[in-house]
Amino acid sequence: MVDPFNAWWAQQLVLCDWAFAPDPLTVDADAAVERLAALGIVDRGELGWCLMETLGTGGHLDPARLLTGLELVALGGGAGWLGEKRAGDWAQRLAEEISAHHASLDAWLEALLHARSADGWVRGDDGFVDACEALAALEHDGDGVTWEMLQEWLAIHPREAAFWPTAPEHQVWRLRAAFSPVLELPAGALDWQGLEAWLIEAWQIRDRDDLVRSLLWLAAQGDRQGWDLDASRLLEADAEERRRWKEALSGEERGYGRVLLGLLDQGEPLEWGAWDWLRLVDLAWAGTCLGWLDEQEAHDFALHGADLLLRRYSDWGALVRAYQRGRSLFEGRNLLPSLEADWSLLLQSPVSPWRPALQGLISDELIEGSRVAMRAWRRDPRHWALALAAVREPEFAARQGPMTELPAARREEARRYLIETLDLHADEGVEALSRYWLPAQAHHLNQLAADAAHGALPPAETPFGRPTPEEISSRDDLRQASRHAATIHMAEKFAFHLQMAMDSGDFDARRLAGLTGALKGSLCRFYPDARRLLQAWAHWESLLPEPEQPPMVAEIRWHLDDPGSLFHWLDWRGGEWHEPGPRPTLAHFTAMALVGPLNSPAWSLPQPESERECTAIREWVDGHYALPGEAELAEFLEYLIEVGDRQEFQINYAPYTLNHGRLVSEIATLESGDCSEEEGAHLLRLKRVRDNEDGCTDIDLAAWDIAQAVDLAIAGRQLGWLGEAPFLRLLERAHALASEHYAGWEEYARGLHAGFSFFMGETPERESFLAGFRQALVAWLSGAPPLVGAWASLDFPGARPRHWAPLHIDTLPGDSRTLH
Question: Helix 382-392 crosses helix 487-504 at what angle (to 10 degrees)?
Answer without folding.
Answer: 100
